[in-house]
Amino acid sequence: MATLSDVARRAGVSPATASRVINGSSKPVTDELRERVLAAVAELQYVPNAHAQLLARSHRSAVGVIVHDVSDPYFAEITRGLQRIATDQGRLLMICNSYRDPDRELEYVELLRGHQVAALILAGSGYHDEAFTRQLNEKLAAYGATGGRVAVIGRHEHSGDAVMPDNRAGGYLAGRELCGLGHRAIGVVAGPRILTTTTDRLAGLRQALGEQGRELPERRIRYAEFDRDGGAEATARLLDADPELTAIVALNDSMAIGALATLRARSLAVPQQISVVGFDDMPIARDVTPALTTVRLPLVEMGVRAMSLVLGAETPTPRVEVLPAELVRRDTAGPVPRAAAGSAPRARRGDPSS
């Protein structure tokens, strides 16, 4: 399929001139150049993107947002913040769900670039994938060369404006809380290994335990999808492998809710027999029973700050804004059971998906 650059090359004009002719710009173009461009369009059978033309004529009013899954409460809250600023500035949001598929994210960058969005925000975690990171940076650089603005939320191997939730500090807060309550047998329900968010939260947790002379062996970590069912399934596997766990850290609140479901199915009282700490402080965290002790991230503010970066004045150097984590004590974390060290193994029963 022919591109605008192909048309410009065939007509012997610059891409900007070809674009002015094809998009009907009011900027003057000589009749000779116009005829050459139109002849090249006919010869190459070039079909312009009608939506991209509309955006170009509207001075690139839309902002593209790539999230992992907007139905996930984490991304829903971030999107609220993005939408707040976009609405205030009369901007249209184009939201794309990648479902944590790196190839799909690359495709969406190209798609949004083709729609000539004014700015692009990557709102999901980065990946431990060198090939993907290289391709992503190449595509973002090409987009930036056309005047597009870029910001990321979370840790990405990308040199540019970023809003960074302090995931490592949040993991540290969760670990310190459980150590302070006397827990040693701590299991972790973690998200996918490939995500930088998972790595950072685990690193903070390990740091807190290490400062107390405690370890977090791999046998006490189960990786799963960052959702309720993933949390339920991972918790079941943890308990089957180590029935004497006294605490579980779930690396997001959706997983924590799944963990609570599994513990309830196995008749394990929270926090009397086992404690649970979540991460993110999604709105539902305060409404579950018992109310979830968790690590709060300012999710809406993260969206606000990212949109403000891409729509605000440009700066000569990248800006990185780190937003703090905060422990929220509710009802799911308590002191280690006194008899934990000498108790008999717990029954492995119940349906973890109930």
Automatic annotation (TrEMBL):
Domain HTH lacI-type: 2-57
InterPro entries attached to this UniProt entry: HTH_LacI, Lambda_DNA-bd_dom_sf, Peripla_BP/Lac1_sug-bd_dom, Peripla_BP_I
Keywords of this entry: DNA-binding, Transcription, Transcription regulation
Lineage: superkingdom: Bacteria
Protein's UniProt keywords contain tRNA-binding: no
Any Pfam family the entry gives: Peripla_BP_1
Gene3D superfamilies per the UniProt record, alphabetical: 3.40.50.2300, lambda repressor-like DNA-binding domains
Annotated spans, Disordered: 331-354
A molecular function GO annotation: DNA binding
SUPFAM superfamilies in the cross-refs: lambda repressor-like DNA-binding domains, Periplasmic binding protein-like I
Composition bias, Low complexity: 333-345
Designated name of the protein: LacI family DNA-binding transcriptional regulator
Source organism of this protein record: Micromonospora tarensis
